[in-house]
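Journal club prep, notes for RB
We'll compare a predicted complex against what the paper describes. Inputs for the fe (ii) ion case:
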Amino acid sequence: MQLKIYRCRICGEVYLGYEAPGNCPFCGAHVEYLEGPEKYPADINDVQPTETERADLESSIELETSNCRFYLGMAQRKDNDTLRSTYKRLAKVEAEHCEVFCKLAKLDVPDDLMTPGETTGSWATDIEESLRRENRASALYASFSERATSGRLKEVWDAVSAVEQDHITLDELAKTYL
Ligand SMILES: [Fe+2]
Ligand SMILES: [Fe+2]
């Protein structure tokens, strides 16, 4: 077994391992986006967004910030360590998405990205709220991709939409740990 370098085309992070994992451990992008580092051009995020694409990137940043903060809020609860650590990880995945969208929009990451936000008050109702958020995110990114003209923006919105779809499955799984 030999250690290899994989680079995620979506978040740009490097994964070091013997073989590619099923998903990027940082942004959750599916295995097809993990490639040799030579497939990651230095100017990959150098896009010139149209007015619509720029507005959609800004909406994406807002959505990821809100979701990241919501999950950090959930992760402050002390009474279920499996769920606490799962939603802490989920917060970091959404933060990674936020950073990608900021790079594409050439904007700074919001100051409050890692500040825990308000939750609905219980694990069960928060998981329901999470389902609502993930469904919305997945559908929204699919529509942003649909109307985008930039190939790179389409690629990122498609990949992240699929990740948010995975998070719907995760919420259903989380219910079994309540
Ligand atoms: Fe990634
Ligand atoms: Fe998500």
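Talking point for the session: The chain is about 55% helix and 5% strand.
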